[in-house]
Amino acid sequence: MSTIKGLKCRECGRHYPAEAIYVCEYCFGSLEVDYDYERIRATLTRRLVESRPQNIWRYRELLPIDGEPTVGFHTGFTPFYRARRLGAAFGVKELYIKDDSACHPTLSFKDRVVSVALSRAKELKFDTVSCASTGNLANAVSALGAKAGLKRVIFIPADLEMGKVIGSLIYAPKLVAVEGNYDEVNRLCAEIGARYKWAFVNINIRPYYAEGSKTYGFEIAEQLGWKAPQHIVVPAASGSLLVKIWKSFKEFHRMGLIDEPPTRLYAAQAEGCSPIATAVHQGSDIIKPVKPKTIAKSLAIGNPADGYYAADAIRETEGWASAVGDQEIIEAMKLLAQTEGIFTETAGGVTVAAAKRLIEEKKIPRDESIVICITGNGLKTQEAVAGHIGRPIKIKPTLDSFEENMKEKS
Ligand SMILES: *Cc1c(COP(=O)(O)O)cnc(C)c1O
Ligand SMILES: [Zn+2]
Questions:
Q1: N or C: which end of the chain has fewer CB within 10 A?
Q2: CA-CA distance, 138 to 127, in Å (whole number)?
Q3: pLDDT tens-digit map of 127-161
Q4: Measured at the alpha carbon of residue 202, what is the angle toward residues 199 and 206, in degrees to the nearest 5?
């Protein structure tokens, strides 16, 4: 049973068939999946969702495939919980964490988008999948593509963290390290994509890929007891996750699964790459591209594809944005680890630091429900914190040595 009608231009509304295309021929707007919402509303219920296995496909009517899913049966339904100790540190009443640092199989929310993209790529009969990545996407395409039996050609900036490089190589894709930043890698991939018949998950099949991010929002609403939170802080690179979380709440409402979402959206970016936050702060419609310089490499997109839509969603919901410095990012990674026991990557540090600032600036009130989006795992970006967390206490294998050294250090 297919619930997709085709693709639709986000700007002029023109319709297109559900193929591997992503821009409108008339206005150059980006294309989006068009669903048969009437039909979905008639079948999709809370009970039906709850009766299904705990993975992203429990929301399959609202995901862009024609037949049965083929990739990602263990992806999604990650932990969501009340963060009491971090909440106390922030001085807020009701704080929650959605934790995709534990997402299967590559420990970031990119496993969601890639599971959807590869399921669709197989339906569209591609045998090779590709991507331009800031790191986590490379890991997810490498791993899930291996399991799906697909050929993989992966493009990354040459200066990525070791954990992200090894976390791709182990799955033996063709890994191409480009001497340039993400925006240059992405531009190159658009050229390569015009010549080779590959499924570039975040380029020519981006309309399907991006829909996978909705599952992060669907899960939050379901795990919160079928309602949307009042405030949600989202890390932004291309801005797609933020836009799709908002779409997920609106779709759940439209399908009659939750009340009207009261949610305000907040973008979290690094100071060294904050085109979306800058536009929000200036009240501007225009996203001015920047040259990234930050330790948060997974968020280092200087020319964000969905920047305009992200800023628009933030305006629509009367949210805000924050851009935080490298030192704040490291401190926030430590704070999350030491209060909630979660080792997140630099992107998670950005989100926690941004949330802290937004609360201190009174942009987010202390007595309402707040969700923080943790999207990646700290084991992948160890070099960011290596010099900032002390060292083990070295001793001789004797009781004397132990007690001597404990005295000194305590
Ligand atoms: C890619 C990524 C994001 C942001 O994704 P966009 O949808 O491009 O804004 C956030 N966190 C992590 C860890 C990522 O890898
Ligand atoms: Zn158009």
A1: C
A2: 17
A3: 999 999 999 999 999 999 999 999 999 999 999 99
A4: 85
Q: Which of 311, 169, 324, 165 has the alpha carbon at shortest distance from 243?
A: 311
Domains of the chain: 80-106+210-384 (3.40.50.1100)
Bond from prior residue into 105 cis (ω within 30 degrees of 0): yes
How far is ligand 2, taken at its centre, from the CA of residue 26, in Å?
5
Taking residues 316-330, report their average pLDDT: 98
Ligand 1 within 6 A of 274 CB? no
Q: What tens digit of pLDDT does each residue of 60-84 get?
A: 999 999 999 999 999 999 999 999 9
CA torsion, ordered 354, 359, 363, 364, to nearest 10 deg: 100
Residue 202, ligand 1, Cβ within 6 A = no
Confidence of residue 407 (pLDDT cuts 50, 70, 90): confident
Angstrom distance (rounded) from CA 110 to CA 107: 8
Q: How many A from CA of 23 to the centre of ligand 2?
A: 8
Taking each helix axis as running N to C, give the angle between helix 110-123 and helix 214-223, from 0 to 180 degrees, rounded to the nearest 10.
120
Query: E strands along 243-352, which residues?
Result: 264-270, 320-324
Report whether 374 contacts 98 (CB < 8 A): yes
CB 371 within 8 A of CB 98: yes
Cα of 214 from ligand 2 centre, angstroms: 23
Tell me whether residue 42 is exposed, middle or buried, using C-beta atoms within 10 angstroms of its C-beta: 0 to 12, 13 to 18, 19 or more.
Answer: exposed
**Residues 357, 322 contacting (CB under 8 angstroms):** yes
What is the model's pLDDT at position 208? 98
User: Vertex 380, ends 374 and 381: CA angle to 5°?
Assistant: 85
